[in-house]
User: Fold this.
Amino acid sequence: MSGAKPRTLFDKIWDAHVVERLPDGTCILYIDRHLVHEVTSPQAFEGLRAAGRAVRRPEATIAVVDHNVPTSDRRAGISEEESRIQVETLEKNVAEFGVPYFPLLDERQGIVHVIGPEQGIILPGMTVVCGDSHTSTHGALGALAFGIGTSEVEHVLATQTLLQQPAQNMLIEVSGRLPPGTTAKDLILAIIGCIGTAGGTGHVIEYAGEAVRELDMAGRMTVCNMSIEAGARAGLIAPDETTFTWIAGRPYAPRGENFARACTYWRSLASDPGAPFDKVVRLNASEIAPMVTWGTSPETVAPITGAVPDPKAEPDGAKRAQLSRMLAYMGLAPGQKLAEVAIDVVFIGSCTNGRIEDIRAAAAIAKGRRVAANVRALVVPGSGLVKKQAEAEGLDRVLLDAGFEWREPGCSMCLGMNPDKLAPGQRSASTSNRNFEGRQGPGGRTHLVSPAMAAAAAITGRLADVREFL
Amino acid sequence: MEKFTTLTAIAAPLPLANVDTDKIIPARFLKTIRRSGLGVHLFDTLRYDVEGRERADFVLNREPYRRAQILIAHENFGCGSSREHAPWALLDFGIRAVIAPDFADIFYNNCFKNGILPIRLPRAVIDTLIGDASQGDNARLTIDLARQVVVRPNGEEIYFDINPFRKHSLLNGLDDIGQTLRHEARITSFEEARRAAQPWLPAIAPV
Ligand code: SF4
Assistant:
């Protein structure tokens, strides 16, 4: 296509899915995959029912329960009434509308953003939506994936499309290599610290550069997962051999001749040389240290060797007041060393860091050590299959012997909609993605870290530098 | 969806940046299967103490702001989760418009689906409007969507930008699904072409 304008990965996926461009520029965008969970879907199905509409393509949809489910033994069902009603409502809806579903006791059940890629349901070049902001996770496969609200869930169920305005393109290029002890989580926390929680607003971020190419698929998912914490509509990584190898053989992935044809197409998706980006940010991975958040916004992040900042140094009055409020909420003093902050709870899991690689990383630190007295440490696999794999590798034993709890898959303490919550004032080191006030339970205080850093915190009973354990 | 044409109402100042959706409505209130009834939990942790008593210093607990229908806030309003419970809670409380320097994308979209008008204005203008909104009973603003203006208590008009498609839907209370389904034939032909070009796209079999 000589003479054609060079396009980005985002442009290519977008262009391939525009059904109709309305006069004002709004596009009807075709959606290939729709993931559904119990919290953001009941009102959407209710809307369909009220309007007498069907689900247009049930076979492009997959439903699962994850947000509300208990992570202790569930054979007796869900005791908490409202959670049970939400789960039962989903089960009723998927039966009525013919939507494929992984029930609670199915080993494929798990966090919606873990099970989609795991099953080969999400493939490069697709458009993927879910009534959940962390849908951005799937960008790791080179799919344009973004979170939507419940009205849009209903819109996709009814029409298999969405009304969308095109996003702008942002490139984050990370050169160099991540030093020992630092992971994809530290990389994305450093990026958010650099561009801020609104740094990506209106943009789709493409992550590129040596450090990104070197990441395994789990790491790429961690990075894309937290794109939303940088305000971006989606994150994307160009599909490459790492992606194709990872997809091959998954239950819903194409096979044989179809797989080969798909790979040829997927290779053509990478951004063209010279494709224009509206914003470009460059970082060097070799300068990144293990990171930890200290405030109640993911951008309030520092290397573990750092200290809590002093609000007095902030010139803007409104920001100064907000900073003081954060430190009061977090129970931290200006100048306090982060590595001296004692913790009560460790949570390893979530769609950010609940995959097998994350559990391996935590187990590697936990092996032969003990969780500190007074610390409760939970490990919650991202799916039933992750749990099974970890058990096959003996990681559950390593973690249990060290004093961690080994639980059933789900969102769990990432947002505390099930019984796994922080008590008011409790402080956690958590591998999830949000440290908002009350996110893990009313009054709870969250420090976001990588799985290895979380394991190190569990063992020392404080925020700790994982490099001391290597 | 209820139409939005003009609104003259009390505006409440909420001069905070990064008001996330967990702050607008915490996760523990998302267990509902309905859209209504969330207003009492709006801004739960800011609005109530641990015993569930109203915090006297929170703006929506004071007169006349208990009757506010417009909210004015700082940067990045509505960041965080995609929960439409956030606009549902605002609407159930009575809020029909939010004015801020910028909004998180998903929240911004969600507002339009529920007849809430999010208005982006520069920070300096926001500071002026927060000044207006701090005048108690005189904190009344008028929003005229057709003319795309916010009218200050002193009569000064401030123009705001809005996408024409969204403006049209809001002014007429139109449902997006109905509008999209008018293009159903196009969707069907798109699907057929796509299936032919990318036969590897698998169906998810019902379980
Ligand atoms: S693990 Fe947390 S962030 Fe991920 S989908 Fe569940 S609640 Fe949302």
In short: Residues 81-97 of chain A form the longest helix (17 residues). The first strand of chain A starts at residue 18 and ends at 21. The pocket of iron/sulfur cluster is lined by residues A 66-67, 111, 113, 132, 134, 350-351, 411, 414-415, 432-433 (CB under 6 Å).
